[in-house]
């Protein structure tokens, strides 16, 4: 199946930007190299100072060029036996977020995979679960054990605990006014600031405040780890995971957090004004993976409204555009696939969440995923 885009130029700047609404863990193998070992290694192999500087400066092109140039030397040198040089290759992933050339990011992942450091990268790229393509709500229930409503982002004030908070807030306001305490002026000012934050800053201020609440913060981590792991398993290079609302706003992400990934085939097809069914399926699975992750861990999803909006925008660019029924079916199919994929790799998802929770860099997060997927290696 091949879908065609009616306005391919609208997607020229799209690098598949995912945005969401919103324990201890052994780092024995994935911990950064101790400073003393790194200094000793650099004294014996001074050229590695160049690599360290490139990583520090977030210069992906220079770091990748260095690794390629030293590849043959390390294959036959004492460094290869010690494993120190190869262990440091992981650091290159931490330079990806600043890279403007997404093909360069893809090359970095391809280099590490060729060296055997990313054996699980893309392991599920060609996997499409068996079963009918038409996924009705009852099929979602049968596959996941959850009602389809549990796999949809919640509107604040209308669903979940937020409705109770809203009712309590309105009741409290009414009570204070009935007691002669007029807070309407202050309330109007607060609502005005909230409105301005929503319109001009994309809700960044509210998101920043909310992110300090541990339960909400962890839900964001669960959501983004779902995007990250699914993209990794589907062979989509990850540029980075942004968890700071202010940084997200500066990078143009509409939401509290975001995971940036790249699919070379999808971008190439979009540039040609067409979209194959396999590329669209893979894209949809990664896009709905955050919602699926929340449903898997909490029994229902709250975040992901921006993910749905991005999905709709792509569907409307197709020629002919997908109907509402077709969009709903593709969304249900995708979220079920992502849900089951994450369920089968639950340990890896848990590892990603815990690594993100500690503030680990992308290279550490990816290593934890690999260790969880290949524990005996």
Short overview:
The chain crosses the membrane at residues 156-181, 187-209. The chain is mainly alpha-helical and 377 residues long.
Please give a handful of descriptors for the protein shown.
377 residues; mainly alpha; 3 domains; 3-stranded antiparallel beta sheet; 20 helices; 6% strand; globular; disordered N terminus
Range of helix content: 55-70%
Q: Order of helices and strands, N to C?
A: EEHHHHHHHHHHHHEHEHEHHHEHHH
**What is the architecture of the largest domain at the second tier of CATH?**
Up-down Bundle
State the major sheet: 3 strands, antiparallel
Order of the strands making up the biggest sheet? 5-1-6
Q: Spans of 5+ residues with little confidence (pLDDT < 50)?
A: 1-33, 156-162
Separation of the first and last Cα atoms: 39 Å
> How many domains is the backbone divided into?
3
Average pLDDT taken over every residue: 76
Fold and architecture overview:
With 377 residues, the chain is mostly helical. The chain contains 20 helices and six strands. The strands form two sheets. It has a three-stranded antiparallel sheet. It has a three-stranded antiparallel sheet with strand order 2-4-3. Helix 16 (289-298) crosses helix 18 (324-344).
């Amino acid at each position: 199946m091949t879908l065609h885009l009616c306005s391919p130029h609208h997607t020229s700047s799209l690098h598949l930007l995912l945005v969401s609404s919103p324990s201890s863990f052994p780092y024995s193998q994935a911990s950064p190299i101790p400073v003393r070992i790194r200094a000793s290694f650099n004294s014996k192999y001074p050229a590695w100072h160049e690599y360290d500087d490139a990583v520090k400066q977030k210069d992906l092109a220079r770091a990748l060029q260095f690794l390629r140039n030293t590849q043959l030397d390390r294959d036959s040198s004492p460094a290869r036996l010690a494993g120190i040089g190869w262990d440091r290759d992981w650091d290159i992933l931490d330079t990806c977020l600043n890279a403007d050339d997404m093909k360069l990011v893809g090359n970095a992942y391809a280099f590490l995979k060729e060296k055997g450091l990313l054996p699980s990268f893309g392991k599920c790229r060609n996997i499409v679960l068996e079963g009918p393509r038409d996924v009705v709500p009852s099929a979602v229930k049968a596959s996941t054990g959850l009602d389809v409503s549990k796999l949809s982002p919640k509107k604040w004030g209308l669903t979940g605990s937020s409705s109770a908070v809203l009712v309590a807030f309105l009741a409290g306001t009414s009570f204070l006014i009935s007691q002669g305490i007029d807070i309407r002026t202050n309330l109007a000012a607060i609502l005005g600031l909230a409105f301005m934050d929503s319109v001009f800053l994309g809700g960044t201020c509210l998101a920043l405040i909310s992110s300090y609440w541990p339960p909400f913060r962890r839900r964001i981590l669960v959501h983004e780890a779902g995007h990250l792991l699914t993209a990794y398993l589907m062979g989509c290079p990850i540029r980075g995971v942004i968890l700071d609302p202010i940084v997200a706003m500066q990078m143009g992400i509409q939401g509290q957090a975001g995971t940036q990934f790249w699919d070379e085939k999808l971008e190439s097809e979009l540039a040609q004004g067409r979209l194959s069914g396999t590329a669209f399926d893979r894209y949809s699975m990664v896009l709905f993976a955050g919602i699926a992750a929340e449903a898997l861990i909490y029994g229902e999803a709250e975040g992901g409204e921006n993910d749905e909006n991005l999905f709709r925008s792509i569907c409307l660019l197709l020629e002919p555009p997908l109907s509402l029924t077709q969009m709903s079916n593709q969304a249900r199919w995708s979220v079920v696939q992502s849900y089951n994929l994450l369920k089968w790799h639950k340990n890896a998802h848990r590892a990603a969440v815990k690594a993100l929770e500690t503030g680990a860099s992308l290279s550490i997060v990816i290593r934890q995923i690999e260790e969880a997927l290949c524990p005996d290696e």
